[in-house]
Amino acid sequence: MKELIRIVSIMLKEKRDVLLSIIFGSIAGLTAVGLFAANGYLISQAALTPPLYILIGMVAVVKLGSLLRATSRYGERYYSHRATFTMLSDLRVHFFEKLEKMPLPDIQRYRSGDLLSRIVGDVESLQNFFLRVLYPPIIMVTVFIGTIMFVSFYTVEIVIILIIGLMLTGFLIPAWFAIKQRKLSGEILNTRANFSTETTEWFKGYRDLKIHRQLLEKEQQLISASDAYIEQQENLGKRSNINHSINLAVSFLIFWTVVAVSGYLVASGQLDGLFFAMVVMISLTLFDHSTPMATLPIYYEESERAAIRLESVIDSPKIKSKKQRGEGNFKNPPSITLEHVSFSFPGESREVIKDINLHFPSGSKTAIVGPSGSGKSTVLNLLLQLHDVTKGTIKYEDINLKDLDQEQLWKQAKVVLQENHFFAGTIRDNLLLEADFMTDEEIKQLLFDVQLSQFTPSTEVFENGENLSGGEKQRLAMARAIVKKGNIWLLDEPTSSLDSWTANRIYNELYRRATNDTVILVSHQLAGLEKMDQIVVMDQGKIVEVGNYEALMEKKGYFYKLKKIEENIISS
């Protein structure tokens, strides 16, 4: 419930539209009842052949009432839907602002399809919260109160029947539906999230599935998820129709009760027969405002689950305000220290990093090498706070990484990961994500420096760089890192797809550009590391050796063996 209260607080930012929609909705509802009452009275009067001016007056009232009803109904629809769409917009902004401040490890706990389902589907589900949960009861009560006050001038018995009908169709029957709804599984949002996840994985992994001939099996999983979602939707539709039908049947029962009692009152002389048709017509249209209450429990449950799913993502205790964090705006390249750092992935007992101690001096150039699975990339991810350490401490200068303003860290970091995203556009668009301005000549020189002289600033790049080779992506990522401001270089396998000659040229450009910066390079290739200040050798999550290139080669230890293996492979 507290999650929906937050939704209400966001919705009330547009309280003017909400208030106007309620006012126009109430006017439209009362006018509709008034029109039916006027028509009933007009029918009765016409049967008694009254003076013509009375009929003309009643017809004029009906016409004016019809115009007022149409106008107010339009205003109600306009303002209620504008309030809803604005609320959804505000909710998306609120969600993204919270998501933006979340630590990356918290975001990575969610599969991409599930997160997409929450951002799109769950937010979309909340459009029914105002239109079908909050709005109908207010209009129903307003119209019923106005109608009952009017009918009370003619007959108290009919007022009692209408109040009983209100309690049944507006409160008791919907409450019974709500209890049934609680008992049903109603996992439609989870089913939709599962379907979205399977769809996302199918699209992202289509090529690999095709290559490994697993496409058919994955398609079956996707179809199963789709069928489950369709079944949930059908069940929801059936429940909605059944609830609406039951409430409508009760409202018709109340209507016939009003007809019977009104007939008795007219026969017994307790009600003027002139008002019989008017009372009957009022009861016929009045319950149009209570029958929508039958589906309110369904939409309430859906809205509550959607709000809970959204809040479960963004309601993270790890989100800190900038006042609680260190500044982290390093004017000089920072030193970085790892003290007894260990790391395990959530839910796993196996330690990927095991009690390591490392120091990267300010302005130093460090390479972390080792076989695949040794924990090299994990160390880099920990430095970027893509994961939180399980044990130990990471410090930038004397600031604990947990207390560091993550925005400032990313502002200072020049990052090249194993997988880098490229946007649909041009080379210029992808290079100038951070740079304020670069001329075409400057871009051409940069492309020449990273061995991409075959490209021009206006060369088209497809989404995610689909028209680029693996080596071209790595060189373009390096160019983007060069353009970005900052004094911390964190590079993960930046030359793994390049030949030795091109890799050496890239390393030379790196040394030239990062003369005074702190550089940490992760690589399984050992060529081109001769100029590094220190080389950290890792194996199975532990540090095996630390030293510069000459010292490690003279020691003839683990690094020496890896280097000889690499040379033998290249020579063969």
UniProtKB/TrEMBL annotation:
Keywords: ATP-binding, Cell membrane, Membrane, Nucleotide-binding, Transmembrane, Transmembrane helix, Transport. Pfam families: ABC_membrane (PF00664), ABC_tran (PF00005). Residues 336-565 form the ABC transporter domain. Residues 19-288 form the ABC transmembrane type-1 domain. GO terms for biological process: cell redox homeostasis; glutathione transmembrane transport. The keyword Transport applies. GO terms for cellular component: plasma membrane. PROSITE patterns: ABC_TM1F, ABC_TRANSPORTER_1, ABC_TRANSPORTER_2. GO terms for molecular function: ABC-type transporter activity; ATP binding; ATP hydrolysis activity; ATPase-coupled lipid transmembrane transporter activity. It is a multi-pass membrane protein. It is found in: Cell membrane. The chain crosses the membrane at residues 20-44, 50-68, 133-152, 158-179, 246-267. Coiled coil: none annotated. The keyword Transmembrane helix applies. Gene3D superfamilies: ABC transporter type 1, transmembrane domain, P-loop containing nucleotide triphosphate hydrolases. PANTHER family: ATP-BINDING CASSETTE SUB-FAMILY B (PTHR24221), TRANSPORT ATP-BINDING PROTEIN CYDC (PTHR24221:SF653). This is Thiol reductant ABC exporter subunit CydC. It comes from Lottiidibacillus patelloidae. The gene is cydC.
